[in-house]
Specification:
Length: about 350
């Protein structure tokens, strides 16, 4: 088993990574301070892993809540369902919520934990690649608003993140590929050597080779844990993790969170950010091509949908969470492995990127 740590003083927590972790009874019981546990999952994951998750909390009183599956259900109405279940079940401040699923379940469960009775504990059991390498680590929790993704949320760190890579064997191909977008992101923004490794091991990852997956997940979590430990609330370096996301979130919002998966939208967004970086004279065209080629090689889109206009993109981007004092801050590249957060880019270059990116 690989064990990493997110170092946040008294709120530090481990990331546990291995094959078959979830099948070990009682493996999460020590991370529960009280006796009550509520596992929140969805209709896709529940038949596969809910029974194992219940056993992972052996010795505790465990309740379950199964929600509909999909990004379009990541909203305040469904969030109310979680609160209703907690209140109806008479759960008190000692309850620990457990998020069993992908990023939607993790975000919603975490936000529920951040706000129920002003804050209770929770643990992350991510079952998708995207959640394992990104959304389960770092304590960002949120729900979507019709006008913007993750606009309503809170920072609330879990007590533990348990990553069982065996859950990836049941993940649909499209969702697995979408998760690779976030893996590739880490190489692009912070680690050129890791990006090189990804270029040479893309086929092994697509084949879900165990050793390749373990390395890619561990490396991604290491990079994210380091950034979160330095900048928990995104006042500085953590904003680099949003590479491609301002463009990607605009795509998701324009589609009402129904067509593309998050990782697919981020993949196209990263290509757009790379193209803008080239137009700025910061990134070489060759490096932009390497980014686009690797994303395409793992089956991800490299351009926004033609049905979304540049005007729509810009309007939605203007209400993104990264906007500061009316200016859209973007994460751009100086080179592979070297990213910066900047509002000092040409507006004409941004418009040209939006005009030519479909």
């Amino acid at each position: 088993m690989k064990q990493l740590s997110v170092d946040l003083g008294e709120r530090s927590y481990p990331i546990l990574i291995a094959q078959g972790l979830l099948s070990q009874p009682g493996c999460l019981s020590s991370y529960v301070q009280g006796e009550q546990v509520m596992i929140v999952t969805n209709t896709t994951v529940a038949p596969l892993y809910l029974a194992s998750a219940i056993e992972a909390f052996a010795g505790k009183t465990v309740a379950t809540l199964v929600l509909p599956d999909g990004e379009r259900y990541k909203n305040l109405d469904i969030l109310q369902t979680i609160y209703d279940a907690l209140i109806d079940g008479k759960f008190d401040r000692s309850v620990t919520l457990a998020a069993l699923g992908g990023g939607v379940i993790g975000d919603m469960t975490g936000f529920s934990a951040a706000t129920y009775q002003r804050g209770v504990d929770f643990v992350q059991i991510p079952t998708t690649l995207l959640a394992q390498v990104d959304s389960s680590v770092g304590g960002k929790t949120a729900v979507n608003h019709p006008r913007g993704k993750n606009m309503i949320g809170a920072f609330h760190q879990p007590r533990c993140v348990l990553i069982d890579i065996a859950t990836l064997l049941t993940l649909p191909k499209r969702e697995f590929q979408a998760g690779l977008a976030e893996v590739i992101k880490y190489g692009l923004i912070a680690d050129a050597e890791f990006f090189n490794w990804l270029e040479h091991n893309a086929k092994a990852l697509l084949a879900r080779d165990e050793s390749a997956l373990l390395y890619a997940i561990e490396k991604s979590c290491q990079l994210k844990a380091k950034v979160v430990s330095q900048d928990e609330r995104e006042q500085g370096a953590r904003a680099l993790l949003n590479f491609g996301h301002t463009f990607g979130h605009a795509i998701e919002t324009a589609q009402s969170y129904q067509d593309w998966l998050h990782g697919e939208a981020v993949a196209a967004g990263m290509v757009m950010a790379a193209q803008l970086s080239v137009r700025q004279g910061w990134l070489s065209p060759q490096d932009a091509d390497r980014a686009s080629n690797l994303l395409a090689a793992v089956g991800l889109p490299v351009a926004r949908p033609a049905s979304i206009t540049p005007e729509q993109m810009l309007t939605i981007m203007s209400v993104d969470k990264k906007v500061l004092d009316g200016t859209i801050r973007l994460v751009l590249l100086k080179a592979i492995g070297d990213a910066v957060v900047s509002a000092d880019y040409s507006r004409e270059a941004l418009q040209a990127t939006l005009n030519t990116a479909s």
